[in-house]
């Protein structure tokens, strides 16, 4: 079912937590709301669920305006970070509870529970109690309980953040697979950009209650709308250098790069990702730098390079090199940057300055 948010706004007293968020989530889509803590993600989700009143704007599910509709009549299931299971009920009883509340007859309920349990691979554990389960299994019970009644919309608020790193990666794959199988329209909230990039069909990036960009993970990563999105998405984060645009060049201490075009923006920020840089011998690149630090990550080496070290405006640029790369601290090197990897932002408001080549 399609979910439409139309200028959805939430005010708490004089504070506006969400500013006129407009967004259409297509039937079967996995949409991720991504942003730092406090940017309004949970507030937006709770409004869709009907747990929070709407200050302005409207919510539609399918053709139906649900802005004023009680939560239980919205046909939505929500999974939270802290998924409370009933400790004295078995896995089967936990999963079947929403159906029991709806007075679904026992045989139908048993069948639905078994079917869902199979989908999330809990069918061998139906007689256990929550205390006899691992964290990941408990989380799967919570998911099963949410999907057992086939909601038209699935809302999830950081459902994996209580799990350890390894389990989180595993559950991420499970979730993605399950959402694909069920085809239920899903809105998923997270502050974790890796989670957003790996799960979403499309990502909506929020900051300070405002939508920054809406796009596929590829668009968000490769074509960020502004400085905030560019810096928030990607690991390691995009490196930034403060400088100026002067007749088709970006100039900063240690850097002088042709970027083409003629812009009226003067104070600018250059952004570049680690994989679009190379450490090359001094004199062979366009940016003078020294090796500040390096880390062998496993399949690659991350080299932190300092530019403009002898000025009062030094910057660090992360460079991704082969795992065999070795460098000395303080080595004088150059950084080569792929022209297609250069991003320029207006220092005033962080907006993207489109380069003629891009
Ligand atoms: N009931 C409330 N009363 C007042 N302020 C609130 C309330 N709920 C949330 N806020 C504020 O709204 C902002 C967004 O909160 P929230 O949606 O929980 O952020 P997120 O989920 O992105 O971390 C925060 O600044 C938070 O303090
Ligand atoms: Mg939250």
Mean pLDDT: 92
How many structurally independent domains?
A: 2
Low-pLDDT sequence parts: none
Known CATH architecture of the largest domain: 3-Layer(aba) Sandwich
Beta fraction: 35-45%
What does the overall shape look like? Answer: elongated
CATH topology of the largest domain: Rossmann fold
Query: Whole-number radius of gyration?
Result: 25 Å
Q: What is the class of the largest domain in the CATH system?
A: Alpha Beta
Bound ligand species: adenosine-5'-diphosphate, magnesium ion
Report strand order across the widest sheet. 6-7-8-3-9-10
CATH superfamily of the largest domain: P-loop containing nucleotide triphosphate hydrolases
What about the largest sheet?
6 strands, mixed
> How many strands appear in the DSSP assignment?
21
Strand and helix map with partners:
Blueprint: E1 3-12, E2 15-25, E3 30-34, H1 41-49, E4 56-61, E5 64-65, E6 76-79, H2 91-101, H3 106-119, H4 135-147, E7 153-157, H5 165-182, E8 185-190, H6 193-199, E9 202-207, E10 210-215, H7 217-222, H8 227-232, E11 239-246, E12 249-252, E13 255-258, E14 267-272, E15 277-281, E16 287-296, E17 300-307, E18 315-322, E19 332-337, E20 343-346, E21 352-353
